[in-house]
Amino acid sequence: MAIRIALRRTGLTRAMIAGLALTLALSARVVPAARAQTPPDPPIATAADPKAQELSGRKLELRGMQDTIDASGDQRRKIESEIALIRTDRAKLTAALLDASGNVSDAERRIGEAEARLETLTGSEEAIQRSLTARRAVIAEVLAALQRMGRRPPPALLAAPEDMLAAIRTSMMLGSVVPEMKAEAEALAADLQDLLQLRASIAAERDGLAGDVQKLRADRLRLAALVEARQSALAAAEQALGAERNRVAELAKQAASLKDLIARMEAEVAAAARGAAEARKADEARKNAIAAPPPDGRLKTALAPFKDPGRLAPATAFIETKGLLPLPAAGSLRRSFGAPDGFGGAEKGIMIATRNEATVVSPSDGWVAFAGPYRSYGQLLIVNAGQGYYIILAGMERINVNVGQFVLAGEPVATMGDGAAKTAAAIAIGAAEPVLYVEFRKDGAAIDPGPWWVKPELQRVRG
Question: What pLDDT does residue 200 have?
Answer without folding.
Answer: 84
